[in-house]
Amino acid sequence: MKKTIFAILVSLALLAAAAFSQSQSDIVIKLTGGTKKVIALPDFRGAGATAQFADTFNRTVFDDVQRSGMLNMAAKSFFPLNPPQQEGDLRGAPATACGGRCLADWAGAPVNANYIGFGYLAEQGGQFVAFGHLYNTAVPDVAGAKIFRKLYNAPLTEDGARQAAHQYAADILQQFGVPSLAGTKIYYVSNRSGSKEIWVMDFDGSNQKQLTRFGSITTMPAISSDGRRLAFTTYAKGQPQIMMYSTETGRFIPFRNSQASMNATPSFTPDGQQVLYSSTVSGFAQIYIAGLDGGNPRRLSNSRAIEVEPKVNPKTGTDMVFVSGRGGLQQIYRMNMDGADVERLTTGEGEASNPAWHPEGQHIAFAWTRGFAPGNWNVFIMDAASRETVQLTHGQGRNENPTWAPDGRHLVFSSNRAGGSQIFTMLADGTEVKQLTTQGNNSMPVWAK
Amino acid sequence: MRNRHIATSLLAASLLIFAAGCKKKPPAPPPPPTPQPTQTTTQKGPAAVIQSFTAEPSTIVRGESSTLRWEVANATEVTIDNGIGAVPARGSRQVSPSSNTTYRMTAKGAGGDAISAVSVAVTTPPPPPPPPPAAKASLSERMAKDVQDVFFDYDKSEVREDARATLQRNADAIKAILNDFPSAVLSIEGHCDERGSAEYNLGLGDRRSTSVKEFLTQIGIPAERVKTISYGKEKPFCTDSNEECWGKNRRAHFVGVQ
Questions:
Q1: What's the pLDDT score for residue A6?
Q2: Pairing with A13, which of A145, A156, A233, B63 sits 20 to 30 Å away (CA)?
Q3: β-strands A127-136, A185-190: how paired?
């Protein structure tokens, strides 16, 4: 079952790759072989002022490529001592090993790499410049082995080095049909300032910045599909209410809350023109929809139960999943936008919450306590049509609030497995788990374009 | 010679009489002789003399003490009554009588006794000032002291049987408090334990606070002076991961808001 779903995810990547294959057919065909190819990424060395940022650059490239899950990483300890830095360093296939300057040095044992990414860093006109290459080690002819050579310009800072590295890694991954996550952001909740506030960071955990400063409880962020609007729930004015924020201008946008003891768990429709949320305006917390400014609110669900976390299918825009206690303990349900055709998606075992749609609208990721004591959440993926599920985390603490990366291959979630609540990313098969936060308690991540 | 002396004496006496008669007033009689120790020493030795016997201060507040001091001469035995008994000829003694008391000193001497007395007046201490008008307890103090939390079962918002009794008691206190603080509003906070999702628990905390509000308004708390707020699991009272702690966190908590 797990294989089935992951195969679907891989096939999604392959579809994307197929679209790209018109120009890069050789790479895509190799990928369809099923086994992961191996890439060698010898460290770039930096000339002049760029030397101090070489570690950051190399680590970032390595992490991005590794996290993609699309390639296996050749062990650095096996690398020849003299890797190429520029095209001219490479010699044609020799009779014997040439210390790293021949592609055969990388193709053969003990490295056994199918690809090599190499280059160097230099300062040019006060800028940070990375000269990045990707070669196919299996092609005997040096000129034919070249996949690309590119220059990456960035500010001469550590952050600049990271930007250039993300771009270089994105170009490598693109050859394998993997969409880049470079430039994507993760919004989340952190209490490290002393109260729960909304923070934002790059997808790899760098550049962590505080967005709100209410000194209250501010939580449950949601991002519009274009990444331009952020909605969240805050106690800044007493009772929990929804607020709206423009990620472009850095300003709050007026949102009129209904007169209720609670308006919370907002999310956007796929077109970004409406907001769904849970409100107690009629008593029990129920699902509502309103305009972007909170105007014209309408009730969508109708039960005497607690219902929260409405999430509209990003592909169809015509149905939604949500969490309800209408059948007992909280479970995940689906219904049409008009509230009709309600069906329970989870089995009724344990408690289920935090549904998040895959960008393609076929699968949801969610948190479930099935098989564990109440409160011990694990991340699952469900095929919303067949209701087949795959469990991605296995009892390492509480694992909650999974949301998808724009690439549809990664998930971000919170877990207390390492003490305190922290934010992690992983591939949709549960591998390549990486911790992004360490300061304070961090939770409720959402991944934005 | 002797006759001449007598004649002279008579003359002097007559002159004296004459002189006195000239003043028309009889001369002041000489003071009576003080009992001079010497008077009786010849046979019995000197009489006791109390040269001083004082109480300082002579007026005390009950519970305080006064010091008796004395100095006696020629005494063979000195005693003070009121339980003090024999004392040396010269000394002092602290006394703390509980009411007006006269201390009598008797000094016995070979040639006679002497007696003296001092009084110590005892006054009742003035009553302390009345207790300060009971410092008015603040709204939050009254709420914390008089209004008890009520607790819920897991994933439930129904008011439990034990909570009903607590709410009945709370209602009286709340009425009194709202009466004493006419501008105050009762805020009922709904809280949950850490196990449910944060999102669902916002809705659950809201149900808990609403159930309690409904119960209280049915027994006479004016609805317009009650508001509810759900904290879900955002403000736990207890952070351990066990049932004891979870049970404490599944509560409705009461706060006064001015």
A1: 55
A2: A145
A3: unpaired
- A interface toward B at CB cutoff 8 Å? 196, 217, 219-220, 233, 235, 238-240, 261-262, 264-265, 278, 280, 283-285, 306-309, 323, 325, 329-330, 351, 353-354, 367, 374-375, 377, 400, 443-444
Does an H or E element contain B230, and which? strand B226-232
- The CA distance from B197 to the nearest CA of chain A, in Å, is 7
Chain B partners of A323 at a C-beta cutoff of 8 Å? Answer: 197, 199-200
Nearest to A321 by CA among A329, A313, A363: A313
Specify the CATH number for the domain of residue B237. Answer: 3.30.1330.60
Topology (CATH level 3) of domain A185-448: Neuraminidase (2.120.10)
- SS3 state at B107: strand
The answer to whether residue B3 is domain-embedded is no
For β-strands A209-210 and A197-202, DSSP reports them as: antiparallel
Backbone angles phi, psi at A420, to 5 degrees: 70, 170
The predicted complex's ipTM stands at 0.87
| Positive/negative CA dihedral, B71, B77, B80, B85 | positive
Q: Is B234 on the interface with A (CB under 8 A)?
A: yes
Q: Domain A23-174 falls in which CATH fold?
A: Rossmann fold (3.40.50)
Widest Cα–Cα separation across chain B: 146
pLDDT per residue as tens digits for the range B106-155: 988 888 888 889 999 988 877 777 776 666 789 999 999 999 999 999 99
Sheet holding A410-415, edge to edge: A399-404, A410-415, A422-427, A434-435
Q: Does B207 touch chain A (CB under 8 A)?
A: yes
Q: How far is CA A323 from CA A336, A355, A397, A413, B173, in A?
A: 14, 8, 22, 18, 39
Q: What is the CATH number of the domain that holds B108?
A: 2.60.40.10
Residue A321's SS3 state is strand
Full domain range(s) for residue B232: 139-257
- pLDDT bin (cut points 50, 70, 90) of residue A175 is very high
Query: Tokens at residue A192, please?
Result: 């490290």
CB contact under 8 A, A307 and B203: yes
Residue of B nearest to A233 (CA): B199
- Tell me how far apart the alpha carbons of residues A272 and A292 are, in angstroms, rounded to a whole number: 8
Cα A167 from Cα A169, distance rounded (Å): 5
CB-nearest partner of A278 from B193, B203, B228: B203
Q: Distance between CA B183 and CA B169 in Å, rounded?
A: 22
**B26 falls in which pLDDT band (50, 70, 90)?**
low
Whether residue A110 is preceded by a cis peptide bond, meaning omega within 30 degrees of 0, is yes
Examine the domain organization and report whether B103 and B175 are in the same domain: no
Distances (CA, A) of B168 to B4, B143, B184: 126, 15, 20
